[in-house]
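Minimal example, chain plus 6-O-phosphono-beta-D-fructofuranose.
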Amino acid sequence: MSQAKKIETIGILTSGGDAPGMNGVIRSVTRTAINYGIRVMGIRRGYHGLWRGDVTELDARSVSDKSRVGGTFLMTARSKTFVTPEGLQQACKMTQVFGMDALVTVGGDGTMRGACELAKLELPIIHIPATIDNDVGCTEYTIGFDSALNTAISCVDKLRDTASSHERCSVIEVMGREAGYLALHVGIATGAEIILIPEQPFDRDKDIIGKILSARNRGKHHYIVVVAEGAARGEEIAKYIESNTGTEARATVLGYLQRGGSPTYQDRYLASMFGIQTVKALMENRVNRVVVYKQGEVTDLDLFEGLEIKKRISPEDMKKASMLSI
Ligand code: F6P
C-alpha cells in the first residue's frame, strides 16, 4: 500500500437523528486522537455545518463529562444543500480550508451514504454507525439502540400497570423508521402479546383480533401490542382492536422520548470502543472504513462494501417472540 499522507488533523460531525452515545463517540475519538498527537475539529450541525464551515477545535476539556449526556453537543441537522454535487464539492473544500486530513462521520444509514459520496471525492472517511434504529446492515449494533430500548421498555412497563388495572389493551408505537428492531426487542423484553414490524406483513383479523380473542379465552385480561412506526399507526390499531373485540384500547406514541436520556452502560462502553477503533484505523492508514460490531468484537470494514451489506429480522426471531407471549 502506498504511504498515505500522515493524518495530522481530523474533522468529526454528527448527522441524522441524534442517538444517546453520540457524545461518548465524540469524546472517545477526540481523546484518543489527542493521545496520538492528532488535532480534532468539531463540525457543528452535521453536513450542513460542514458545508458552511461551522467548525470549532476540540480539546480534552471540550469533551469533559459528555459520556453520560444524551444527544450531540455538536448538534445535527438534515441538509438539502449538501447532497447536491455542488454541496459535496463545497463540503470537501471546507475540509481543506480547515486542514482536515480525514473526516469522521457519526450517524445512521443516511449519514453513511453521504460519507460514501465524500469518499468518492477523495476525502478520507471513517464512519461510525449511530442511530437508535439499529438498521445499518453491516453492523450488529449501532450506538444508541440499547438506550432507546431501555427507555421504551420502562415506558411499556408503566403502561402495563394501567392496562392491567383497567383490563385494557395498550398499543405502543415505537420508532425505527423502516425497521422493526426496536419493536421486536421491546416486545420480547416486555412480553407483548403482539409485535407488528415492517419486515413481517400481518393480517389485522388473524394476527391481531384473533390473537387478542385467543389470549382473552386463555384468561388474559389486559394486552400489550408493540407497533413499529414503519408497520402501522398505533392509534389506528387501537381503534380496530376496540371496535372488533369490545376491549377498550388506548394508543401511546413514544416518539422522541426514545431519542433522549442518559446513555446506558452498553452505549457508553461501545461509544468509547468505536472511537478508539476509529483512530486506530486512521493511525494504521486504513481509511474509507466503517466501524462495526460483529460477534462481540469492534472492528472495521471497507466503507463501500459495508454500505451494500443488508440485514433483516429473521422469521425465527418473530416465532420466538410469539411463543413466549402465550
Ligand atoms: O432515525 C432515527 C429516527 O428517530 C427514526 O426512528 C425516526 O423515524 C426518525 O429518526 C425521525 O426523524 P426526525 O428526527 O427528522 O423527525
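The chain has two domains: 9-144+263-308, 146-259. The first helix runs from residue 22 to 35.
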